[in-house]
Amino acid sequence: MEVGFIGIGNMGWPMAANIARAGHPLTVHDTDAARCAQFISEYGGSHARELAGLGRCEFIITMLPTGAVVTDVYTSPGGQALLPHLRAGTIAIDMSSSEPQGTQALGSVLAAQGVALVDAPVSGGVPRAQSATLTIMIGGDDAAAIERAKPLLRCMGNRLFETGPLGSGHAMKALNNFVAAAGYAAAAEALLVGRRFGLDPGTMLDILNVSTGRNFSTEVVMKEHVLGERFATGFALGLLAKDVRIAAQLARTLQQDAPVAELMDARWALALQRLGAGADHSRAILSWDRADTQGPASPGA
């Protein structure tokens, strides 16, 4: 199966690499042409400098920052859109963290041209992208397209879940990241309060991780990236704040009371404002420790 892969950033690179390792003919496209050249030198395949060069592909995978960028790739009115170059029967797989409603709208546009859209966002971060052990959440209205896509998805992940109709994968991804963001925020507050009381942050995490407060942030993010001040999870603050906002907006659209989602939306928006979108999300704790007039401090300080 010939695959076109759009977006070879921190996550897209190892995901595309695993497709190449599986032996599938691969064509990559990215706004960074030098990065594409480097990828091809390491893994083979070809580089589509223009989106039209992907028109021959049976599958198109997008791994891009937002759903709006994904939609622009397919339907940009500037004459550079991909959709006019695709054949009927092509399967588009969006593995980005996109807005569910936007995914549904894009799906209708693609379906009118005979292209099936599957949303298949991932969880697991860069380490699991590298080891091809991502969790993949699959939504779609075309059951046959999903079945055709699964062998390709298994090149990148070992936990595949069908979540329902088109957009449901993206809804699940946003809700998962909202829960993860809430776990991080709670752990951060606990460490900051405990430190001000005189507790040792390392001891606190040791206790949390063998107690009911244990979560991914206490076990991995706080231990490996915050206490040691590495701040190198590879997941940008701007992307997590965006996912939390998607979850909060979904609750608003559905008229579901979700006060924690609203609070997390505001909390991560504050971190985004203070640190910038490009900061590693593990730095958020620094933006929330502002009682100290000398500025943010590490919880290990």
Key descriptive features of the protein:
single chain; 301 residues; alpha/beta; Rossmann fold; N-(1-d-carboxylethyl)-l-norvaline Dehydrogenase, domain 2; 2 domains; nine-stranded mixed sheet; 13% strand; globular
Can you walk through the features of this model?
The protein is α/β, with parallel strands linked by helices and 301 residues long. The protein folds into 2 domains: 3-165, Rossmann fold (3-Layer(aba) Sandwich), CATH 3.40.50.720; 172-288, N-(1-d-carboxylethyl)-l-norvaline Dehydrogenase, domain 2. The protein is built from 12 helices and 9 strands. The protein has helices spanning 12-21, 33-43, 67-75, 100-111, 125-130, 143-153, 168-197, 201-208, 216-226, 237-253, 259-275, 284-288; strands at residues 3-6, 26-29, 46-47, 59-62, 91-94, 116-119, 122-123, 134-140, 157-164. Strands 1, 2, 3, 4, 5, 6, 7, 8 and 9 form a 9-stranded mixed sheet that branches. Helix 7 crosses helix 9 and helix 10 runs antiparallel to helix 11 (259-275). The longest helix has 30 residues, at 168-197. It is globular. The termini are far apart. Residues 292-298 have low confidence and may be disordered.
